[in-house]
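I am writing to request your help with a piece of structural work I have in hand. Here, with my thanks, is the record as I have it:
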Amino acid sequence: MKTLLCSLLLLTACALPAAQVEEWLKSGLLHPDLITSVRDQLALTEEQQSKLNAQLSEARAQAEPLEQAVKEQKKALNQLLKDRTSTAEAAAAQLSKLLEAEGAIKQLQLRTLIAVRDVLTPEQLAKAQKLNPPGQPSPRAGLEARVDEKAHKLRAAVESLGISPTEAMKYRGEEIEGLIKSGQLAEADAKLDELIKDSHFKELDAEVEKVDFSKFEPGSTDLETLRERFERLQVAGQAIISLPLLREMLQAKSAFEEAKEAQDAEKVGRILTYAEERLKKNGG
C-alpha cells in the first residue's frame, strides 16, 4: 500500500493546474489521495490495489516526457517574448505549441482519474463519494495542495528567467521530491518553505538595475586567464539558489557575450570581476 501512496502523490505532482482538477472532482471523479485515505472503509482487494499501482505507475512514466515538453515550450515562448525583434505571429505560434503540450498532460491526467474511478465497484464508488462529497477536499488534500501550489510558484519563478535550475536547486528539489515519495508531506512542506526563503523569488518583482561594469577593475586581460576565470564562475554559479542573484548573473552573461563578440578583453575582465564580487558577497 505504501507503493500505492507514493504513486498517488507523484500523480498529483504533475503540472496540471489544481483548479482544473478541482473542476473534475466536482463532477464526480475521485482524487487519488481520497482512495488512500479511506482505503480501509472501501475494503480494496489486492487485485484493485495492484490495478491502481499499475495505472498510476504508467501515468507517471507517461507524464515525465510530457512535462519536459511543457517546460521546453515555456522556455521557447519566454525567449521569444524577450526578443524585441520577435513578431506577434511567431509568439502566437509558440503559444499554440505550449497549449498543445499542456493539453497532452490534461488528457493524461483525465484518463488516469477515470481509470482510477473505474477500478472501484459501484458500491465502493458510492461509498467514497459519500465519505468525501464532490468538491470537498480529502483529509490530506489541504497540505498536498499547499505543497503543490508552492512548488508551482517556485518553478514558474525559475522558468520566468528562461533558464534551467542550478545544480544546487536540483539537489534540494530532489530532496523534497524524496520526502513526497515517502509520504512525508509535512517535512516536504517545511523543506520547500526553506527553499523558497533562500530563493528570494518574491524579490523578482523589483525593477532590475542596470549594472555599470566600467566601475570594476578588469584584472588580467590575458585570454587564458579570462577563460579560466569564466570557467570558475560557471562552476560557482551552479551553487546559486537566490533567483535575484541569478538574474544579475544573466545580465552579466549577456554583457559578457557582447564584449566577447566585440573582442573587448578589458570589458570582459570588468564583467568577470563584477560577477566574482557578487558571488563572493553572497557566499559563492
